[in-house]
Amino acid sequence: MAIEFTKYHGLGNDFILIDNRSSLTPVLTPEKAVQWCDRHFGIGADGVIFALPGQNGTDYTMRIFNSDGSEPEMCGNGIRCLAVFLTELEGINRTKDKYSIHTLAGVIVPQLTDDGQVKVDMGEPRLLAEEIPTNLASSQVQVINHPLEVAGKTWDVTCVSMGNPHCITFVEDVAAVNLESIGSQFENHPVFPKKTNTEFIEVVNRNYLKMRVWERGAGITLACGTGACASLVAGVLNDKCDRTAMIELPGGTLEIEWSEIDNRIYMTGPAQRVFTGKY
Ligand SMILES: N[C@@H](CCC[C@H](N)C(=O)O)C(=O)O
């Protein structure tokens, strides 16, 4: 049976969106999602996102499968794409739309802005080792600028959860990092029982960071929204940046704020429909 889909991207982090509002069970298995995401034998994407009915009083539920079929708790670029997708499905006033979306990382609230971007309340960052999770420190301790051996080298890492795990390293020159060879060694390091996303950050100034990312379950991508949020938090914890900064990724730039008022992270960026089809 052919299934309708819409392809979106957020700064080149691309997703296949499926209208799954009639059931809480995704219409694709993880194995099928792997095949759909294949860039040579399928549609091609970093993941598949399902728009499901709400739960516990929320408007909708988001589930996502990475391109390797694993299921992450959250996806920042993906939830902006989902917000625009829902607006198009429901046919309602773009700039007034504010959705509560149930995810495995908690309730996330995206809102479309007047200039066509999406601003997302990403919730509070989680910093304790047991919340990442990582066994780099004891469970109730934060992992900030902590040595980690990877590929024969010691890296000073900071760990932040945005619902999903992130391991952040500050470097002099982000372009010089050999992501292809070290990315998967960070992802699969035994100190991360649920694996990890890995971000390398170059500080241009206190309000501008450059980032490259290796994503758990997807490898190198052009952008990662949760990764940008986690990196801003790591920058503040290491006194390398202010609480609001632009984060430049290979696919474009996100604005990230860690509010002093409510301790929540706000991410603003674009989401772009590419094409629709049946597969
Ligand atoms: N690209 C996403 C993150 C997707 C999930 C990630 N690969 C994981 O397994 O945690 C984003 O924009 O946040």
UniProtKB/TrEMBL annotation:
The keyword Isomerase applies. Its EC number is 5.1.1.7. It comes from the Bacteria. Keywords: Isomerase. It is an enzyme of class 5 (isomerase). This is Diaminopimelate epimerase. It comes from Dolichospermum flos-aquae LEGE 04289. The lineage of its organism: Bacteria, Bacillati, Cyanobacteriota, Cyanophyceae, Nostocales.
